């Protein structure tokens, strides 16, 4: 995002008042909040420099997945870290194609409600599906969909994909500063990452 550097400098300047930067964190599909918390710990909080300045609060996705129906690796990580696996929206060719769109909108609404009710927050951090939801919340706030101005100051999007449905995409690139982190294992579609980076 073009404003990311300026936004990061501003965020760092405000943070020195003594309060940690507070981020609401949205896990990927098939994860639990506890699993994502462990990943964030490994990525950021093991370093003293980060730990002193960041507070992560992980939110549970609204659509829970039965552990018995989940892949073996999902079952294993949830057993080790705790929590129930969930997702923010569901795809599939055997259902109404509009359903994932509606589920994404509802999930974004639930996240926005928590931001309002439990604020102040500094940023949203989302992994995979959670990143798609986080970017959607930022879009809704910027486009004036009944959300207060300045709801969040920045986004951290980890391996997030281009959202479903043209109606859910922003009319113009977002002004909210954003940091994009992409996994190097090639699991995601490059076109999705490029669209997200260029247009969000």
TrEMBL record:
<keyword id="KW-0378">Hydrolase</keyword>
<dbReference type="Pfam" id="PF03959">
    <property type="entry name" value="FSH1"/>
</dbReference>
<dbReference type="GO" id="GO:0005737">
    <property type="term" value="C:cytoplasm"/>
</dbReference>
<dbReference type="InterPro" id="IPR005645">
    <property type="entry name" value="FSH-like_dom"/>
</dbReference>
<dbReference type="InterPro" id="IPR029058">
    <property type="entry name" value="AB_hydrolase_fold"/>
</dbReference>
<dbReference type="GO" id="GO:0005634">
    <property type="term" value="C:nucleus"/>
</dbReference>
<dbReference type="InterPro" id="IPR050593">
    <property type="entry name" value="LovG"/>
</dbReference>
<feature type="domain" description="Serine hydrolase">
    <location>
        <begin position="19"/>
        <end position="182"/>
    </location>
</feature>
<dbReference type="GO" id="GO:0016787">
    <property type="term" value="F:hydrolase activity"/>
</dbReference>
<protein>
    <recommendedName>
        <fullName>Serine hydrolase domain-containing protein</fullName>
    </recommendedName>
</protein>
């Amino acid at each position: 995002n073009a404003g990311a550097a300026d936004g990061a400098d501003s965020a760092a300047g405000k943070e020195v008042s003594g309060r940690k930067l507070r981020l609401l964190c949205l896990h990927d599909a098939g994860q639990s909040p506890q699993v994502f918390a462990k990943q964030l710990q490994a990525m950021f909080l093991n370093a003293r420099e980060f730990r002193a300045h960041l507070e992560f609060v992980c939110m549970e996705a609204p659509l829970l997945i039965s552990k018995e129906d989940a892949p073996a690796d999902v079952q294993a990580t949830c057993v080790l870290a705790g929590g129930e696996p969930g997702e923010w929206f569901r795809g599939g060719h055997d259902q109404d194609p509009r359903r994932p769109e509606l589920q994404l909108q509802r999930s974004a609404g639930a996240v926005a409600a928590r931001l309002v009710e439990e604020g102040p927050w500094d940023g949203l951090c989302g992994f995979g599906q959670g990143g798609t939801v986080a970017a959607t919340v930022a879009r809704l706030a910027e486009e004036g969909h009944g959300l207060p101005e300045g709801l969040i100051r920045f986004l951290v999007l980890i391996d997030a994909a281009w959202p479903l449905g043209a109606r859910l995409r922003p009319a113009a690139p977002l002004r909210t500063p954003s940091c994009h982190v992409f996994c190097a294992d090639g699991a995601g579609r490059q076109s999705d990452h490029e669209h997200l980076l260029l247009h969000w």
